[in-house]
């Protein structure tokens, strides 16, 4: 009887979907010495959008219809199986992943609780924002962790503008103000994007709203500068550009409490805002902590060897933001892990693709070597700044303006190429360029 090796990938983000697609393409209908390879991708959503694009969807500058990818269609085209559901448990002895029941918007059962057997399990469940236990964040702040979060924020933003246009009387304190907590890449990119799109929305006949006086974006960061994880020159350049745009930037400002339409700082200062976005901190999903005895760090990341193999189970791997993969020892002698970046997820997916036959045969696995190609931060149409080739020639090769913008766009194109190939990417790009000539600049629904 022909042997079957079952690879189950949990998480359809950048790394999980790229790996499922490439494995399906490479091993479709091919029999190897280990038999056939069957790939199953598990995700709680039906569609995929590249996570670094969520701020554009939230601001309304990107139409999801042009960029959303359906998992069922991708699985059909690239020879893997897709199963919808959230991972709620793991049986390492029986080698089964337990999935929750999936309900539709009306609470109707779509799929029941079930288990999926595996021979090799790859965890690629990404990361979430970390509220650090700050009171009120869960109830009153929006997090940009998923496509539904970004759409919900955008709807509230449009509704806020329409409400201001049609209400009687003057605006209340904080009305049409957006407070963004956390000035990492997501917070900074969202602040710049919102400055442009809110003014575009007002230009569509909302004459009772004064864009310069009524619309306000406040960016709040607990550290001493914005983009604290990136080189200081990028931070300074981004801060200056945001300030020139009229974005209020507050650094060394620790949030103590979030309530309805209000942020309270540790200093006692309060910020009135109709919309509050929490974009501070990153951690892996809470369900990973203590999952079937797998060891995790303080950020819930699964501890793995440099091969991306769990330190507790040779049949389980982790990659992307949910993996604590050793990287380098810093100047203080502290072991650092691979940072949670899109480029790291892409590299790890490519690494496991090359290692899959070694994994199945139980042969020695090569170590994953992270190459830091620097960081880029998009400030909308205004600019893009960053440092290139950081891990190869140092972090002082500063790049900005149009060249940096092209480099930033190329990162997304590399992701699309991994999923679709050259022909489809070229056609889709041409269609989007044509549609931009006929559609509104900002999505209004």
Indicate the topology:
Elements: E1 4-10, H1 14-27, E2 36-43, E3 47-48, H2 54-59, H3 64-67, E4 69-70, H4 71-78, E5 81-84, E6 87-91, E7 96-99, E8 102-103, E9 109-111, E10 114-117, E11 120-123, E12 128-129, H5 137-140, E13 142-143, H6 147-166, E14 177-181, H7 185-203, H8 211-214, E15 216-220, H9 232-245, E16 248-250, E17 255-259, E18 262-265, E19 270-272, E20 275-278, E21 282-283, E22 302-303, E23 316-318, E24 323-324, E25 326-329, E26 335-337, H10 342-361, E27 374-378, E28 384-388, H11 390-393, E29 398-400, H12 402-420, H13 422-438
Parallel strand pairs: 1-2, 1-11, 2-5, 11-23, 13-20, 14-15, 14-20, 15-16, 22-24
Antiparallel strand pairs: 3-4, 6-7, 7-10, 8-9, 12-21, 17-18, 18-19, 25-26, 27-28, 28-29
Helix pairs in contact: 1-10, 12-13
């Amino acid at each position: 009887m022909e042997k079957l090796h079952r690879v189950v990938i949990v998480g359809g983000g950048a790394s999980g979907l790229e790996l499922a697609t490439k494995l399906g393409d490479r091993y479709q209908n091919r029999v190897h010495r280990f038999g056939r390879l069957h790939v199953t991708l598990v995700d709680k959503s039906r569609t995929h959008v590249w996570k670094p694009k969520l701020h554009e969807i939230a601001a309304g500058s990107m139409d999801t219809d042009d960029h959303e990818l359906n998992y069922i269609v991708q699985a059909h085209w690239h020879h893997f199986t897709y199963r919808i559901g959230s991972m709620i448990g793991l049986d390492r002895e029986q080698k089964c992943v337990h999935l929750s029941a999936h309900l539709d918007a009306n609470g109707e059962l779509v799929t029941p609780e079930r288990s999926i057997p595996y021979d090799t399990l790859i965890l690629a469940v990404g990361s979430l924002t970390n509220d650090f236990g700050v009171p009120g964040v869960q109830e009153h702040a929006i997090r940009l962790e998923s496509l539904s979060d970004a759409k919900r924020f955008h709807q509230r933003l449009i509704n806020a503008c329409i409400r201001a246009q049609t209400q009687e009387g003057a605006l209340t304190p904080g009305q049409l103000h957006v407070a963004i907590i956390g000035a990492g890449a997501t917070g900074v990119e969202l602040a710049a994007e919102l400055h442009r799109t809110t003014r575009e929305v007002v230009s569509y006949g909302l004459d009772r709203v004064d864009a310069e006086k009524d619309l306000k974006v406040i960016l709040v960061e607990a550290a001493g500068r914005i983009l604290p994880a990136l080189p200081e020159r990028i931070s300074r350049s981004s801060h200056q550009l945001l300030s020139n745009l009229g974005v209020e930037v507050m650094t060394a400002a620790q949030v103590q409490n979030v309530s309805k339409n209000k942020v309270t700082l540790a200093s006692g200062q309060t910020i009135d805002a109709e919309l509050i976005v929490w974009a501070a901190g990153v951690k892996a999903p809470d369900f990973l902590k203590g999952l079937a005895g797998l060891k995790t760090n303080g950020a819930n990341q699964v501890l793995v060897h440099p091969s991306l193999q769990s330190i507790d189970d040779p049949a389980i791997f982790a990659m992307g933001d949910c993996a604590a993969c050793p990287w380098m020892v810093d100047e203080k002698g502290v072991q650092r892990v691979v940072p949670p970046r899109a480029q790291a997820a892409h590299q790890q997916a490519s690494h496991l693709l090359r290692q899959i036959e070694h994994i199945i045969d139980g042969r020695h696995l090569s170590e994953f070597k992270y190459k830091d190609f620097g960081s880029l931060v998009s400030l909308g149409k205004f600019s893009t700044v960053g440092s290139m080739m950081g891990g190869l020639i140092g972090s002082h090769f500063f790049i900005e303006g149009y060249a940096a913008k092209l480099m930033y766009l190329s990162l997304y194109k590399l992701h699309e190429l991994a999923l679709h190939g050259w022909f489809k990417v070229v056609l889709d790009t041409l269609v989007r360029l044509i549609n931009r000539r006929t559609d509104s600049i900002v999505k209004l629904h």
